[in-house]
Amino acid sequence: MTNDFRNFDQLKTNELFITRHKWFKPYYELTDEQFIYGKLYRKSLFSRRATIETAEGTWTIKCKGLFKRSSLIVKGEDETIGTLIPATWKRNIDLQMDNGFRAFFNYKKLFSMAYVLTHEMYGDILQIKQKAFGIKKPYVITFDQTLQISDRPPLPLLMLIGVNAMLIRQEQAAAAS
């Protein structure tokens, strides 16, 4: 199924969109409105287990345990390549990859609609901005194509991990209200 996706190296723009498909069991595609670069889907609407597919491969984000807040990033069937650790009293999520790459997702401002992936040394890698009333295209992603980080995971994977984190936060906020 990875043959359906375009290679990310052929991208000419620095702005991508997330398009939502279906209502009850939605899946999300990373696109530039011409080609598809990745796909995010879950087994059920409120499941914390997500699958990400890109041209580089398939990854699964799953809970570390029943009562754990952390999530594992698994490549293929059983190769754990990273961990997502949400902060206790903040809205930050720490991304720690097994190859040494470390960055965190956070909101820069209190009432911001933009979720940013920040690296300590290189600064902002990408920004996921939620569109107001965007049902078909709920997110716009901007990133810096010229930024060269040697141990960085594939950029479509990082983008879709961020979208998944935003979806989980929205579901938690909806359940709390």
Strand order of the largest sheet: 1-2-3-4-5-6-7-8-9-10-11-12
The rounded Rg comes to 15 Å
Beginning-to-end CA distance, first to last residue: 38 Å
Report the helical percentage: 10-25%
Output the helix-strand order.
Answer: EEEEEEEEEEEEH
Strand pairing plus helix content: what structural class? mainly beta
Q: Give the biggest sheet.
A: 12 strands, antiparallel, barrel
Strand content: 35-45%
Provide mean pLDDT, rounded: 89
- Silhouette: globular
Please give the number of β-strands: 12
Tally the helices: what do you get? 1
Unreliable spans: none
Question: Explain this structure to me?
Answer:
The protein has 1 helix and 12 strands; from the N terminus they run ββββββββββββα. It has one helix spanning 155-176; strands spanning 15-21, 27-31, 36-42, 50-54, 57-63, 71-75, 79-86, 93-97, 102-107, 114-119, 123-130, 139-143. A 12-stranded antiparallel barrel has the order 1-2-3-4-5-6-7-8-9-10-11-12. The model has no long low-confidence stretch (mean pLDDT 89). The protein is mainly beta and 177 residues long. 12% of the residues lie in helices and 42% in strands. The longest helix is centred in the last third of the chain and has 22 residues, at 155-176.
